[in-house]
Specification:
There is one protein chain. With about 325 residues, this protein is an alpha/beta fold. The chain has a single domain, classed as Ribokinase (UDP-N-acetylmuramoyl-L-alanine:D-glutamate ligase), CATH 3.40.1190. Helices cover about 40% and strands about 20% of the residues. It has 13 helices and 14 strands. Strands 6-5-1-9-10-11-12-13-14 form a 9-stranded mixed sheet, with helices on both faces. It has a 5-stranded mixed sheet with strand order 3-8-7-2-4. Helix 3 crosses helix 11 and helix 11 packs antiparallel against helix 12. The chain is globular, with a radius of gyration of 18 Å. The mean pLDDT is about 90.
Length: about 325
């Protein structure tokens, strides 16, 4: 019997959210709607420039896969997360936050000196999120952070596509997939961001290998990765890389493929204020649902409702009590 429903690996980032305008992004030379890697000096420069834009928000452990794993944990899944933080204030906070969310992690790894990763999340009035990320010590996440025993005792191993931008992170992602396959643990991967698909497609192919069991992506990522010009063509092309997939379509809902049939997931209409974390929440809710034995249609409904709730409020995560409310709404 599995000990963990979900094992994940990804960056460990502490987020700062800022409301900006399209003009702000243009003046700072920032590409809208994607994640851009920056060094610490550039991130500090942006924070200084936007110091009067800061909105009140609590610190929370972040990173795409972390958001997914934490969401699954709050829904009720047993989870484990592999990442790398430094022996600094943010790093200690990060691990404590994982623990508070009920997520297990590799407690035997000694924390190294350095800087824990930080992500500057800029939200424009159309609710689009644009990220500038300084990975810090997360850039060196490697196979050393893997926990083979936890992997073997999991139902699903989840890989964050952002790891493709780091040589050691990509190697860790590949090793996780291989260890999971050897242990008959199902594999899931997120393409993460259109920029990852555009600039690191070959690396993503390496991470996918001969194929994963489940792949998550949005519309732009699906078409970019498969080099197609329609969602229908992208769906057909994805079948050579994965047994099943979920393509999020924003306000249009989602399209999922369960290995045999396509299922259209209806959107839940909301007023969007912040799209940051929507895809992460979708994956977390979906993985929770299927790990509990629900089919793809029910999983898609919960994921769609949950992602809609995330975009209707600031921040990439929901309050713990909101997860129970969503379970009641989706599975009533």
């Amino acid at each position: 019997m599995s000990t963990f429903h979900l094992y994940g690996i990804g960056a460990a980032l502490v987020d700062t959210e800022i409301e900006v305008t399209d003009t702000d992004l243009k003046n700072m030379g920032i590409d809208k709607g994607v994640m851009t890697l920056v060094d610490s000096a550039r991130q500090d420069e942006l924070l200084e420039h936007l110091s009067d834009h800061l909105i009140a928000s609590k610190r929370a452990s972040g990173g795409s896969a972390a958001n997914t794993v934490i969401a699954a944990s709050y829904f009720g899944a047993s989870t484990f997360y592999s990442c790398k933080v430094a022996n600094d204030d943010n790093g200690l906070f990060y691990l404590n936050d994982l623990q508070d969310a009920g997520v297990e992690y590799h407690r035997d790894n000694e924390l190294e000196a350095g800087v824990t990763g930080k992500c500057l999340v800029m939200i424009t009035p159309d609710a689009e999120r644009t990220m500038n990320t300084h990975l810090g010590i997360s850039e060196t996440v490697s196979t050393n952070e893997l926990h083979p025993e936890a992997i073997q005792k999991s139902q699903y191993a989840y890989i964050e596509g952002y790891l493709v931008s780091s040589e050691t992170g990509r190697a860790a992602a590949i090793a996780l997939r291989q260890q999971a396959e050897q242990a008959n643990v199902k594999t899931a991967l997120s393409l993460s961001d259109p920029a990852m698909v555009e600039f690191f497609r070959d690396g993503l192919m390496e991470m996918i290998g001969d194929g994963v069991d489940l792949l998550f992506c949005n519309e732009a990522e699906a078409m970019g990765f498969t080099q197609t010009d329609s969602i229908e063509a992208a769906g057909e092309a994805l079948k050579q890389y994965t047994n099943a997939f979920a393509i999020t379509l924003g306000s249009k809902g989602a399209l999922v493929f369960d290995g045999e049939n396509y299922i259209t997931i209806a959107p839940r209409p909301v007023t969007a204020v912040d799209s940051n974390g929507a895809g992460d929440m979708f994956a977390g809710a979906f993985l929770y649902a299927i790990s509990q034995g629900h089919g793809f249609e029910k999983a898609g409904k919960l994921a769609s409702h949950s992602a809609a709730q995330v975009v209707s409020q600031f921040g990439p995560r929901l309050r713990p009590e909101q997860h129970a409310e969503l379970l009641q709404q989706a599975f009533a």
